[in-house]
Design a protein that fits this description.
Layout lengths: L10 H4 L20 H6 L11 E5 L4 H12 L3 E6 L5 H8 L4 H4 E5 L5 H8 L4 E4 L12 H22 L4 E5 L25 H6 L3 H20 L3 E6 L1 E3 L9 H10 L13 E3 H13 L8 E2 L6 H11 L24 H5 L7 H14 L5
Parallel strand pairs: 1-2, 1-4, 2-3, 4-5, 5-6, 6-9, 7-8
The protein binds NADP nicotinamide-adenine-dinucleotide phosphate.
NADP nicotinamide-adenine-dinucleotide phosphate binds next to helix 3, strand 7 and helix 10.
Length: 368
Amino acid sequence: MPYQHRTGLSPDCRKSLLIQESRPPPLTKPEKCKPNKEEKNPELQHSTQGEVVCVTGASGSIGSWVVKLLLARGYTVHGTVRNLKDEKETKHLEALEGAGSRLRLFQIDLLDYDSLAAAINGCAGVFHLASPCSVDQVHDPQKELLDPAIKGTLNVLTAAKGLGVKRVVVTSSISSMWPCPNWPADKIRTEDCWTDIEYCKQNELWYPISKTLAEKAAWEFSKEKGLDVVVVNPGTVMGPNIPPNLNASMVMLLRLLQGCTETYQDFFIGSVHFKDVALAHILVYENTSVTGRHMCVEALSHYGDFVAKVAELYPEYNIPSLPRDTQPGLLRAKNGGKKLMDLGLEFIPMEQIIRDAVESLKSKGFIS
Ligand SMILES: NC(=O)c1ccc[n+]([C@@H]2O[C@H](COP(=O)([O-])OP(=O)(O)OC[C@H]3O[C@@H](n4cnc5c(N)ncnc54)[C@H](OP(=O)(O)O)[C@@H]3O)[C@@H](O)[C@H]2O)c1
C-alpha cells in the first residue's frame, strides 16, 4: 500500500495524515467467515478451537480484521501492539467478540527479537502483518521503512522457526509486484511479477523496496531454514476501518474525497476489501497444501477506474477528474486474485469496497 507518490504528495494531499477519531463507534457482532464457502472447502473444516496463533501488527487496520475473523473462527490470538498503554491500539481489539477470553496482547518492537519471541511462544501459526507504511515523505528510508520491514520479518521468522511454529503467513503487498516496467505489455500481471528494485531506487520509491526486500528475505529464510511460509500480496485495502486511526490506504481515499489529484502511478493496481484480505490470510493458513504468493485484489484495475467509480457513487464530493489510464502498462483483468478465487474466495466488488469505506469514513466523522 502504496501511498507515497515518487514526486511527493502535494500539500493538499498531505493534510489529514494520522487523523484520529475522538470516539470509536460501537462494534457490531463479528461477521462469520463466509461459512458457505468454507463448507465447500474441506480443508477449512478442521477444528480451530483452542489453536493459538500470533498476529503481528494486530492494532493496524488489516491486523484488526485478521484478529476479528480469527476470533470468530475459534482461534486464541496473541496480538502484538507497539504500546500496550495506548488505548488507540488496544481498545478496539479488546471490544471484538471473543477477545475477552481468547485475545492476549503483547507489546513488541519489530527490531526487538525478545519481544517478538515472547508473543510467538506457544503459537502454532503466525500472521506477520506489522510493517511501517508511510504516505508522507520518508526522511530516513533505512531506519523508517527498510530496517523494520526486512529485519522485522527476519526476527519474526527466526523466532517462529526456533519456537516450532508450523506455518507463517507473511503479509507482503502488490508493492512487491509493481512497479515492474519490463513486464511484457501484452501479458496480464501474475504472481511471477516482481518489483524492479533499480527503477524504485532511481525514483526513490522506498515503500515498494521495503516490501519487496522483506518478501524476498522471507522466501530465502524459508528455503534455507525449512520454515513453512506462505505469502498474501494485497492491493489497496479499504472498507470498514476498525481502529480509531486510518491506515495509509484509507487516508488515500479520504484525500481523494477532499479533491487530491495524485494518480499513484507506481502504487495502485487494484483495490480489495479489508474482509477479503483477512479471509485470504486465513484461507492460506488453513489450506496447508497451498504454496507461494497470492495476489489479493478484486480485479486488476487502474486508479482512474477507481476514482471514476467513487465520483459516480458519491457525486456530492469534490472528486477530481483523472484520466482513466493512470497505470501505464497495466492490463485490466477480473481474475488477478485467481489463486485465492480457486480456494473459494469470492472478492467483494469495487463498488461495495468504496461504499463500505466511504460509509466508514462518514460514521467515524472523518467526512460529513
Ligand atoms: N493498506 C494497504 O492497502 C496494504 C496493502 C498491501 C499490503 N499492506 C501491508 O499490510 C500490513 C498492515 O498494513 P495496514 O494497512 O493495516 O497498516 P497499519 O494500520 O498502519 O498497520 C501497521 C501495523 O504495523 C505496526 N508496526 C509498524 N511498525 C512497527 C514496528 N517498528 N514495530 C512494531 N509494530 C510496528 C503498526 O503498529 P502501530 O499501530 O503502533 O503503528 C500497526 O499495527 C503491512 O505489512 C502493509 O505493508 C497494506
